[in-house]
Design brief:
- With 611 residues, this protein is mainly beta.
- Among the domains are: 114 residues, YVTN repeat-like/Quinoprotein amine dehydrogenase (Methylamine Dehydrogenase, Chain H, 7 Propeller), CATH 2.130.10.10; 267 residues, YVTN repeat-like/Quinoprotein amine dehydrogenase (Methylamine Dehydrogenase, Chain H, 7 Propeller), CATH 2.130.10.
- It has three helices and 54 strands.
- Strand 23 and strand 24 form a beta hairpin.
- It is elongated.
- 45% of the residues are buried.
Length: 611
């Protein structure tokens, strides 16, 4: 852990400055890291879809997030630990909010309902039905007795939050109502719509008081200042500040380069925060309207932004499926240059170890110089995610496997596409060359392994037997056998010439990597080495995949079974490759991280420990 704190600290951090001389001597080449600390305090990961709404509990100790995965999640803001997952909506959850006393939580969904939950137990208390369309927004009145919800049907509904009874239906907007909020005294309600207006209503009688016009695009967000005297509304690239009494526009804040999705005042009214599709969060001085900070770090649209009750923290959510918590007082994050624009799924070395190939969700294959880290080639041709890449034994060709159900063969020097191999009926997960380079094997979600002529592109064999998708394939050193690992928890051995199934070996755990030993007598998996000479017992021994490996949590790099370097969550790999003492990882952000170890130093330390 202590070694990792030094290794992964930013270049200009005090930790690195003070303790660099005490860093691990067994790392020869350290990974590239950011220059400065990010203002982001935590990244909360757990939703399987985009996070679209956030809310702090009144005491600031919990955070609620709403997602397109149809759930609401509750988090501990200090530790980042998930506390509850609230399930019940049958469609995307668009908004979430705590009651003023923090005991209840309300969520609004595309399923046309508002749900009220017990924030402590997660129990569902009420399901409010009545909207005829998606419900985009929900908010409690300051005294917690009423609940307002806004719909794609152009209406706002006010409910008794205790009984669930409908009290008012506010009509007037000519299009979807995207946001709604009570004034601090609870006497008025502001709503924002696709009809390009903000409307102010009497919350008791439901009568329309003001219609604020001036925006030229849909209005995504609206907020009262803490004293109730001003209203902020967000639209395309700008934030408009209005006088809440007269309805007169006061100022327009400009700076975002794309649509502004959310705007909010800090609890003390001194700052305004905005979230945008330009992937940034911006902080403004509410008095002078001067821009204070631009917070960068999200890799996709930022949908919402919320201050903590004490104003010290700011949280944002994004289509990159993360929630980030920022220190509202610190400086902006310096940009990190990356290659891939999305998740990196696989990395592999060329036979001479001078190049590295990576495949990504951005549908490209990229070839890098191992020593310098420079990008050499970008191969474009797949119409869906690239899941696996592999160099031919002579390093002249590269094979890529994709969710577009094809394998593509490329000239690794010229970038030219040589072959597109079609035949799989589902995503292709893995690909490998035979030792002589004449054959190519691919494994797919269609539960088959296919063997191809790598020169002509013809299909030679289709190996059927797995009952779930194929995770890994490898040829024996003589090229006569093929091993495949599947999600069905088996490893199967095949005769390459006849396609006959020779052995089925039951295993425990997920196996993404397979390799024959040089003598062909052992088969190494992620969880152990199988002695092929005693298949009757299907012996699984200690892991011998590589001197360097990842533990099952994928948060530690191990050496000879010992945890040696802990990985911060932002470095957790989606795929890794190892050659001698060089460990390369590709992760979800598109980052490629390289770490070169000093094996002699590790061996010396290991010997000392054993004595």
């Amino acid at each position: 852990m202590y070694a990792s704190a030094i290794v992964f600290s930013p270049m200009m951090s005090l930790i690195r400055e003070k303790f660099l001389s005490q860093g691990p001597t067994w790392i020869e080449s350290w990974p590239d890291v950011e220059k400065y600390w990010s203002p982001s305090i935590q990244t909360l990961e757990g939703h399987t879809g985009a996070t679209v709404s956030l809310a702090f509990s009144p005491d600031g100790q919990r955070l609620a997030s709403a997602s397109s995965d149809k759930t609401v999640q509750l988090w501990d803001t200090e530790t980042g630990a998930p506390q509850q997952t609230l399930e019940g909506h049958s469609n995307r959850v668009e908004a979430v909010t705590f009651s003023p006393d923090g005991r209840r939580l309300a969520s609004a969904s595309d399923d046309g309902t508002v749900r009220i939950w017990d924030a402590e137990t997660g129990a569902l208390q009420q399901t409010l039905k009545g909207h005829s369309n998606w419900v985009w927004a929900v908010t409690f009145s300051p005294d917690g007795r009423r609940l307002a919800s806004a719909s794609g049907g152009g209406t706002i509904r006010i409910w008794d939050s205790k009984t669930g009874d409908l009290q008012q239906t506010l009509k007037g907007h000519g299009d979807w109502v995207l946001a709604v909020t009570f004034s601090p005294d609870g006497r008025r309600l502001a709503s924002a719509s696709d009809d390009r207006t903000v409307r102010l209503w009497d919350a008791e009688t439901g009568s329309l008081q003001q219609t604020l016009k001036g925006h030229s695009y849909s209005i995504n967000s609206v907020a009262f200042s803490p004293n109730g005297r001003q209203i902020a509304s967000a639209t395309d690239k700008t934030i408009q500040i209005w006088d809440a009494e007269s309805g007169a526009p006061q100022l327009t804040l400009k700076g975002h380069s794309y649509s502004v999705n959310s705007v909010t005042f800090s609890p003390d009214g001194r700052q305004i925060a905005s979230a945008s599709e330009d992937k940034t969060v911006r902080l403004w001085d509410a008095e002078t309207r001067a821009p204070q900070q631009t917070l960068k770090g999200h890799s996709s649209y930022v949908r919402a932004v919320v201050f903590s009750p004490n104003r010290r923290l700011l949280t944002s959510d994004s289509d990159d499926r993360t929630v980030r918590i920022w220190d509202a007082e610190t400086g902006a994050l310096q940009q990190t240059l990356k290659g891939h624009a999305d998740w990196v799924w696989d990395v592999t070395f060329s036979p001479d170890s001078r190049r590295l190939a990576s495949g990504s969700n951005d549908r490209t294959v990229r070839i890098w110089d191992v020593e310098t880290g420079d990008l050499q080639q970008t191969l474009e041709g797949h119409s869906n995610f690239v899941w696996a890449v592999m160099f031919s034994p002579d390093g002249r060709r590269l094979a890529s496997a994709s969710f577009d159900k094809t394998v593509q063969l490329w000239d690794a020097e010229t970038r030219a596409l040589q072959q597109t191999l079609k035949g799989h009926s589902n995503w292709v997960r893995v690909v490998t060359f035979s030792p002589d380079g004449r054959r190519l094997a691919s494994g797919s979600e269609d539960c088959t392994v296919r063997i191809w002529d790598s020169e002509a592109g013809g299909l030679q064999q289709t190996l059927k037997g797995h009952s779930d998708w194929v995770r890994a394939v490898t040829f024996s050193p003589d090229g006569r056998r093929l091993a495949s690992a599947s999600n069905d928890k088996t490893v199967r051995l095949w005769d390459v010439e006849t396609a006959a199934l020779q052995q089925t070996i039951l295993i425990e755990g997920d196996t993404y990597n397979l390799a024959f030993s040089n003598d062909g007598l052992h088969l190494t998996t992620d969880i152990g080495s199988i002695d092929l000479g005693s298949l009757s017992s299907s012996s699984i021994q200690a892991t011998t995949w590589s001197s360097f490996f990842l533990d099952k949590s994928r948060s530690w790099i191990t050496w000879k079974g010992y945890n040696i370097l802990w990985l911060p969550s932002e470095y957790w790999p989606t795929r890794q490759a190892v050659h001698d003492n060089l460990f390369v990882m590709g992760n979800a952000s598109g980052r490629i991280t390289r770490i070169r170890f000093k094996v002699e130093e590790l061996q010396r330390l290991w010997t000392r420990v054993q004595q």
